[in-house]
């Protein structure tokens, strides 16, 4: 154990364990501050339908740049928000911001679905569920709809309650997808029971698709499974043209990834969307002229 002096305070470190503990405490404290001040941003990443060539949706991804901690990524702070009970405030902020951004995103002329990531805790929280339902059905601009993404871990805590609650969302006409598919612990029988209409193949199986035979086999197997269960599939983490054409050949319905676009602030996402549609229009005209 070593005492380290920082300002007037002494911190006691044991191996690296306390380091990690200290960071967690700091993040949780600053998270509280960020929630109070709405100090987050939302980025949007386009999702392309390989069947129609249209941008069918965008995934909303939270970003947080703290004054003292700098940028903290969601993979680090979302689990801490869950542990500390702050996640419902984060989810409320995200849903509120998506509803504000919807107006602009729907203004480009074609229907678009914005997907929001939910945490396991959100699904088991009755009050939250009512808010999520209302947010997705009430007073959205024409052409814009909300969808929710859940992960398999959400189902581990209380599979029965999770299923009942997801059914309420589904029965309200809201689209649900299973995120990070292939990395969690849910059984195939659970998947069969769940009211989701889409699977998102986890990016860890997709990023190296062009060169990794095991990943190719896994992805083909997931596509087969999804077909049997009549679920549509989004492959996330598509980083190159080879992966995209493989997925297309195997009948994967949609893709998302750096090859298409990185997550962007809403103003950039709008410009990107307009450019994409303009190029697409030019290509259609080229095809019909020649
Ligand atoms: P996710 O929902 O699976 O989101 C996909 C992640 O993959 C995002 O990371 C995205 O930026 C990244 N990504 C997209 N395309 C590519 C690619 O081609 N290559 C690679 N290497 N990565 C790609 P991000 O934004 O850091 O988010 C990480 C995770 O944090 C998300 O995984 C989601 O589980 C969680 N998260 C993000 N925003 C929210 C939120 O608003 N609420 C909740 N509850 N969780 C969120
Ligand atoms: Mg997601
Ligand atoms: Mg994912
Ligand atoms: Mg993830």
TrEMBL record:
Name of this chain's protein: Diguanylate cyclase (GGDEF)-like protein
Protein origin, superkingdom: Bacteria
Ranges for domain EAL come to 24-277
Its taxonomic path starts at: Bacteria, Pseudomonadati, Pseudomonadota, Gammaproteobacteria, Cellvibrionales
Q: Which residues form a coiled coil?
A: none
Q: Which residues of the full protein are shown?
A: 481 to 770 of 770
């Amino acid at each position: 154990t070593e005492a380290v002096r920082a300002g007037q305070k002494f911190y006691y470190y044991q191996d690296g364990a306390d380091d990690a503990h200290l960071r967690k405490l700091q993040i949780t404290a600053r998270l509280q501050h960020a929630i109070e001040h709405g100090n987050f941003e939302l980025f949007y990443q386009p999702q392309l339908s390989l069947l129609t060539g249209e941008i069918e949706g965008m995934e909303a991804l939270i970003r947080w740049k703290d004054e003292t901690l700098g940028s903290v990524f969601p993979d680090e702070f979302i689990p801490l928000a869950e542990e500390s009970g702050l996640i419902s405030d984060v989810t409320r902020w995200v849903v509120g911001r998506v509803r504000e951004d919807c107006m602009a995103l729907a203004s480009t002329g074609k229907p678009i679905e914005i997907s929001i990531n939910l945490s396991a805790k959100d699904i088991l929280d009755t009050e939250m569920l009512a808010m999520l339902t209302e947010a997705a059905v009430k007073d959205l601009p024409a052409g814009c709809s909300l969808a929710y993404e859940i992960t398999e871990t959400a189902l581990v805590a209380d599979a029965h309650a999770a299923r009942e609650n997801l059914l309420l969302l589904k029965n309200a006409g809201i689209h649900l997808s299973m995120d990070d598919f292939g990395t969690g612990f849910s059984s195939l029988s659970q998947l069969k029971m769940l009211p989701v209409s889409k699977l998102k193949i986890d990016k860890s199986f997709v990023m190296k698709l062009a060169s990794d035979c095991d990943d190719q086999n896994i992805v083909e197997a997931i596509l087969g499974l999804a077909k049997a269960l009549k679920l549509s599939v989004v492959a996330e983490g598509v980083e190159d043209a080879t992966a995209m054409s493989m997925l297309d050949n195997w009948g994967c319905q949609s893709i998302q990834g750096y090859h298409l676009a990185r997550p962007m602030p809403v103003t950039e996402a709008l410009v990107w969307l307009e450019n994409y549609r303009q190029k697409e229009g030019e290509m259609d005209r080229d095809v019909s002229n020649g």
